[in-house]
Every structure is written in C-alpha cells, then in structure tokens.
Amino acid sequence: MKGSVGELGEFGLIRELTARISDTPAVRLGPGDDAAVIATPDRRVVASTDILLEGRHFRRDWSTAYDVGRKAAAQNLADIAAMGAVPTAILLGLVVPAELPVTWPTELMDGIHDECQVAGAGVAGGDVVRGDAITVSITALGDLRDREPVTRSGARPGDLLAVTGWLGWSAAGFTVLSRGFRSPRAFVEAHRRPEPPYHAGPAAAALGATAMTDVSDGLIADLGHIAHSSGVRIDIHAESLDVPAQMSDIGHAVGVDPLQWVLTGGEDHAIVATFPADTKLPARWRVIGQVLPARGSVRPQVTVDGAPWERDGGWDHFGSGG
Amino acid sequence: MKGSVGELGEFGLIRELTARISDTPAVRLGPGDDAAVIATPDRRVVASTDILLEGRHFRRDWSTAYDVGRKAAAQNLADIAAMGAVPTAILLGLVVPAELPVTWPTELMDGIHDECQVAGAGVAGGDVVRGDAITVSITALGDLRDREPVTRSGARPGDLLAVTGWLGWSAAGFTVLSRGFRSPRAFVEAHRRPEPPYHAGPAAAALGATAMTDVSDGLIADLGHIAHSSGVRIDIHAESLDVPAQMSDIGHAVGVDPLQWVLTGGEDHAIVATFPADTKLPARWRVIGQVLPARGSVRPQVTVDGAPWERDGGWDHFGSGG
Hints:
Chains A, B: Keywords: ATP-binding, Kinase, Magnesium, Metal-binding, Nucleotide-binding, Thiamine biosynthesis, Transferase. By secondary structure, chain A is α+β, with helices and mostly antiparallel strands.
C-alpha cells in the first residue's frame, strides 16, 4: 500500500487496520461500535495497559513496524499471563504523524494481530489519532479460568524460585545493536521480538504458584517488586542461571559480564514465580533460587548468592524501584 | 505540590497518582501488580479506548488539568453507557514531559477519579511514560447486567428517535472560547467538562432501545453511524430540538445559527437512541425524530425535516464518515 497516513485519512486508516483483524471466540463484538464486548466466563477480567513511544521504547531504524507490533502486544499479554490468566483480547490506541507511510501502522497491526494469535487473544477495538510522535497504547484483557490471580505478594520463606522463558537475550541484542552490529541474529531477534511463554502463566497458577511476575525491567528489579510486596528476601543462585555459550562470547567481545544481562536485562518477558518447596515443576521451568525471611529493613531484599548484585551501577537503582 | 515530573521521577509520580485512587467494589485488585482484576458478573465485559492529545483534544490555556481529566474519563465512560452497560473501571495511560509541573498530572488524576465516581467506576491501573507531548489514553470497562449490548445496527423503520443529555453546549462554548471570551459560563463550562447522562444508557437498554450511541462527533455525524449500520434513514425534527434562549443569543452575537451547534456540535456526550414506537420514555428523554426506510443509496441517510442539513459546509463531511 502506498501513500501517507495523512493522504489516506483517519477513517481510511481505521478501515485498513480493522481489515487485518480476525475473529476470535472471546471477542463477542469487535471494532465499529461505541465499545467492544469480550467474554469473561470467570466473572472477573484481568486488565493491563502500557504505552510505548518511538525513541524511548522502540526505534524505527532498529525494528520494523511489524516487530514493534509484536513487541507491544507481547509486553501487555505477558502481564496478563503473569497474573495466571489466559489472554483474551487487546485494545489499541495509536498516535500517528500525518506524513507516516500507511504501511507502518498496517504492518504494526499485522504484528499485533500475529502476537495476539500466539497468545490466543483477539483485537477487540481501538482508537487512531493524528499527532507528532508515534505512540502505541495497548490494553490487554484476560480470563482467570476460576483460579485466583497470582499477585506479587504471596511469596513465603521456604518457597522455591523458578523461571521459564528467556533472560538477558533482549539486553544482549540491545548491546549488539547499540554498537552498530546486526548479529548474532538470535539476540538481535530476541530484542526485536520477545517470545513470552504465555502458557506458563496459567500453568504456574494451576501448579500453586504463590507469587508471579513477568521479567520486563530485569530479573533483579522485578523480583524486587515481589520481595517488597511479599515482605521477603529472594536469593538468586547465579550458578543455576542459564548463560548460553554464545552470550558469553558476545559478553567477552564487548566487555560485559553476561550475567549482567541475565540478571538485569529486561524485555524478554520470561515468567518468574515462587512455588511451595515441594512443587514438581514441568521440564521447562528452571529453579534459580529461593525465598528467605526478610532481613529487617536491610536493602536490597534481592540478593545473588547471598550478596547484593553491585556490578555496573550497583543495586541502588533497583532498590529505589521497590 | 511543587516541582516537575522530571524531578519527582516516574515511581514518585505513580505513587502520587495511585494515592488519589479510592476503592470501588468492582475493582478487585487495583494498581501495583502486573495487571488489575475487575469484577464482570455478567460474564462479558464492555471495553472502549480513546487517546487525547494536547493541542488536538485539549488546550492547557482553556482547560485545567482537572477538567481535562473529567473530560477524558467522561468520553470513555459515555461509550460504555452508550452500549447499555454500567461503567465499572478505567485504566489510564499517560505521557508527560519531564518539565511539566507535577500538579498537572495529579490534578488530571483528581478529575479522572471524580468523573469515575459520578459514573460509579474505579481507576484500576495504568502506565506513566515520559515523552514530549501530553497524551492521555483511557480504556473504560463496563458490565452489561445480563442485558444484550445495544449496538448501532438495530434501528428499524418506524422506531422513534430520542435523546437525553446536552446537545450543542460544548460547541457553543468552544465558539465563545475561540473568539477570546470566557462567558457565558454555562457553555464554557459545558465545553470544559461534559456531563454525560451515564444512567440513561443502561436505562435505555432496559426500555428496549434498538440502537444507541453517545454524541461525541455531533448529532448528525453520530446518527450517520446508526443509519449506516442499521441500513435505515433517520429524520430529525428540527422543531423538537431544545435550543435554549441563551444559546440563541450567543448565536446571534457571533453570527452562527444555534441549530448548527445542536445538530453538529460534539463532545457533550448526550445519549441518543432509537426505540420501538410504542415505548413510554421517561421525562428526561426528548423525542426528536424517527427512523425511516433507507432511500436506496441516496446520501445522506440522516436528514433534518426530510432534507439534508447543508449549512456551514454541508453534509458531505458527515456522509463520508458513515
């Protein structure tokens, strides 16, 4: 498709975007009315919203519109999964400059749609507005399937800490890209397009997870929220973390300890959860630490092998986020 | 509160904003986790999203942050009511420049909160991001209370057309403001802070409304959506419209036919609906026209006293929106 958003006009763009949406069972009434209607068989709905800005959350020279769409949807759908819910639908708010080629928002929508398909969700509705800065606002909805939501506040001393999904891959890819390289491809791809293990969220809830979150800001940072909300300390066992050989190689090449990526890199949207110690976890979960009693008001409450993680800027940055 | 958003920081601002939220029954789990949990006793949720941009949708010299918050919440909550649903919760996405005084987003949140209270909804969660242009993205949710949603597609020839709420007040206020005046206050206030009749949406659904929408873009424009979706013509009886004497006075003073404001002015978020002809409407509803068979492909399908409304730019503008 040729032309700019301004040439096509707002109604034309909305038509192009809605044409890219396919029916899904949960979306009872899709775009085109005052509001959408989405099934919530559980009698509760889980809802999360995020805003992504060009320049701050994505760069058009690093990521295609399609990848931005996948990523924007993924980070919201992962929030739903991290509550133990099954994603059902998203709503999209989009600000686009008049001079933007129409292909950008349409490919963005393709990416959003495809990521929704992976998660089992549908695009229920949205709003498009012309403005100076590309802004993608996504609200994701999900269904708890008669289970209680798994919040950040249920971790108890003695619980084991486990993760599934990828850690540090996006950060390694970001480092590579920011130094002007385009490979190794696996990490660059991981930065452009995360693959959250959506199924793992509801599965963890069914297994009795006591607390859960997705890793959006970095493992230590996000566990900090669980430690703070639960009133516990969480100790990560560095040896149990998966540092792929290729990640070590890049780390060596660019002078970064790859453990730094694994412990502090965000945007992979791995799912990390605490479980009662006797929980039998499926193969794709990796036990990476344990929950301990809080050390009074001593910060941080997230440690690595019993000590604060102080490399590359230290832990204060994360502690202040709790 | 003194200082800028940049000085306070993102976490500090989120703390300030969430401190302004009060508990409501439908919000089972509010801000602070990966996602919120909202009650949906009906097993369906109604959801709508809108983006407001500074300069395009509001001006800081015309409206206070508090008023922008009321208006942003109102336009989304009205969408929920216009489906026949009871608003339950909203989620807020907010982009704020670093140099913006902290009082702006906190007063915005006060306005959002107060408007939610009027509608019976709660603030369930949100996201705050720093960026160049103030952007307010709101997603509103609602409950259908075991009634079918009232869409735009159910109007049938023979139905009566009725409205409740205000028409043309915001447009008259906008005209006054754009000519540098600050009064008459009633209209300026109406522009700054609409008062959608939220209760009327579910009430109309209970009365058997066949199609419904809120007037956000103008009566003729929004009825155009109903006419198009329902495959009917809608005729407005000009004589039945309420044109207050004070509105006529302003119209005379500024050289605008006040009927133009009533028929084409948006943002008051009146609720307009079609009903079977024998429906007994409560006192606050005003019958303003009727539904007729479509005139083949002759445009427009919304007429005023049987003829297209062609004043000030004509009807093509609206016809193209159908």
